[in-house]
Design brief:
It is a single chain. The protein is mainly α. It has one domain. Strands 1-2 form a two-stranded antiparallel sheet. Strand 1 and strand 2 form a beta hairpin. Helix 14 packs antiparallel against helix 19, helix 14 crosses helix 20 and helix 16 runs antiparallel to helix 18. It is globular, with a radius of gyration of 22 Å. The relative contact order is 0.10.
């Protein structure tokens, strides 16, 4: 079956990734325009695929025309389209920020486009080994981007991420090997049939495969205690890179877990092996608590938001393990919401860091009056992260808690409530510092008499020239999306309904 839009979504950014290096031999700064062209082309392709999936249902493209038992399929359903759309939107917004914030090297945009293609590959593949290939493309590109500012701390963070990420990928690949031995196929749909009809859910190879795959992908999704790469990677990356990877890299790791649970193993596996379900929910619940507590303890804003991501992904993984309709809807909504919220928060942190050179919570004293637009966007995103309605952050938590009660595990709903209180604690501390704490007496804080720009930033002579209308606008766009998508729950639920009916 041929649906040429699917391979094009992956091929366009990967092929374009060669151009900044080739054209860079003659022209300077061609990387950014090429990346924007690729993102805009893919935006059109995602819109086309989304419209077709909404009207025609699931789309499949068989590469080379081989039977799916042996060949490679690309698949687009309602879930994968939502994730692909998130990837494209975040890519466009981050590129808007990077226009003046940088990095400006052509090599940076080659790696950026490679990562873009890898992320889309993860969201569209229908083959478990091909999923490994795209996860590795994503990982290798991310390792390079983390170290792209060439500082010793960034290089060390990248090396740590490389070691931990490689261990996770190896565990995943062992699990794939077990699946192949047990079933003789790597296609996701064929695997689900073979596991149910031939291998059996209680087959030791199938159970071991699930364990290895779940642990390996939990490294990618930064589930506690497999999250150790995340704080350093987020804190030491250039601001553009942090915004991009925080919104997407662990997101596709969590998506991969959901895809394999619901397409390959299916909820029937949880019924046959209830320990697997309990272990997944328990791991997610522990991650919610640990991430929230660690976030409260941080004095560095980037690290605070990094540990917050550990908690949010724990919530998503627990919801996937609950395997109820409401929990799954909530997990998808929160997956999208987290991508929007964290990208926007790190973009706002980047603007403030460029303008003032500060990143510690205490040094944010009174910046709400120095940079009112940027800080207002950050405040909206923080409230969304807490779960204040009508934001998308509220919707995701509400559906997941509802699903937890529906599944007979109210303790998960209680942990989500406790996490919300902890999130409110560090969000309130940050907002109180931004608006109500005077800068006088705080070492390194911006003086109250600093001259202002149009956004309330430092004077152009004192600020980093990368602070511009475009960088501020990028954070504002994410804040608007975080609130606007809070009203889109009925539309998203209707769009996801065929996927939910197929997997539950």
């Amino acid at each position: 079956m041929s649906n040429i839009e699917l391979p094009l979504l992956i091929a366009v950014p990967i092929l374009l990734s060669t151009l900044p290096l080739l054209l860079g031999l003659r022209f300077e700064k061609v990387g950014w325009p090429i990346a924007v062209i690729g993102a805009l082309v893919n935006a059109g392709l995602v819109a086309t695929v989304g419209q077709r999936v909404a009207t025609e249902g699931r789309l499949v493209h068989s590469l080379g025309g081989y039977p799916r038992q042996y060949g490679i399929e690309l698949v687009a359903d309602q879930f994968s389209v939502v994730v692909a759309a998130l990837i494209v939107v975040v890519t466009l917004v981050v590129l808007g920020y990077a226009r003046t914030a940088g990095p400006r090297r052509n090599s940076f945009y080659s790696i950026f486009l490679l990562l873009f293609g890898g992320l889309l590959g993860v969201s569209l593949t229908g083959d478990v080994f091909n999923l490994f290939v795209f996860l590795e493309i994503t990982g290798l590109a991310t390792y390079a981007l983390v170290a792209s500012d060439r500082s010793p701390d960034a290089a060390l963070a990248s090396l740590k991420y490389l070691i931990v990420g490689t261990a996770g990928a190896s565990l995943y690949l062992v699990g794939v090997g077990f699946l192949l031995v047990a079933t003789g196929t790597l296609n996701m749909v064929e695997l689900s049939v073979a596991i149910a009809d031939f291998a059996g859910y209680r087959n030791p190879l199938i159970v071991a495969a699930f364990a290895f795959i779940a642990v390996g992908l939990s490294v990618k999704a930064a589930v506690f205690p497999l999250h150790t790469w995340m704080p350093d990677a987020y804190a030491e990356s250039p601001d553009t890179v942090t915004a991009y990877i925080s919104g997407l890299v662990s997101t596709v790791g969590a998506y991969a877990i959901a895809r394999l649970i619901y397409t390959v193993f299916t909820p029937a596996f949880f019924e046959a092996v209830p320990l697997a379900r309990r272990a997944l929910v328990a791991a997610g619940t522990v991650s919610i608590l640990a991430g929230s507590i660690l976030a409260v303890m941080q004095s560095d804003v980037k690290r605070m938001f990094a540990y917050s991501s550990v908690a949010q992904f724990g919530m998503i993984i627990a919801a996937f393990g609950l395997a109820t309709e409401q929990a799954l809807i909530g997990a998808v909504i929160h997956l999208v919401g987290h991508g929007i919220m964290k990208t926007g928060l790190f973009l706002a942190v980047g603007v403030l860091s460029s303008a003032y050179g500060v990143r510690a919570v205490s040094k944010y004293a009174n910046l709400g009056y120095r940079s009112p637009v940027t800080v207002a966007a950050m405040g909206i995103l923080l409230l969304s992260l807490v779960g204040i309605p009508p934001s998308i952050g509220f919707l995701g938590k509400w559906y997941i808690a509802w699903g937890a009660v529906e599944a007979g595990t109210p303790i998960v709903a209680g942990v989500i409530f406790l996490s919300t209180l902890l999130t409110l604690l560090y969000a309130a501390r940050l907002l109180e510092t931004l608006y109500f704490r005077p800068a006088e007496g705080v070492e390194g804080a911006v003086a109250a008499d600093a001259s202002l720009r149009s956004d309330g930033g430092a004077d152009i002579a004192d600020a980093d020239p990368s602070v511009s209308f475009g960088t501020v606008l990028a954070a504002v766009v994410m804040a608007v999306l975080a609130v606007g998508l809070g009203f889109a729950a009925p539309t998203l639920e209707t769009f996801l309904e065929p996927f939910l009916e197929a997997v539950l």
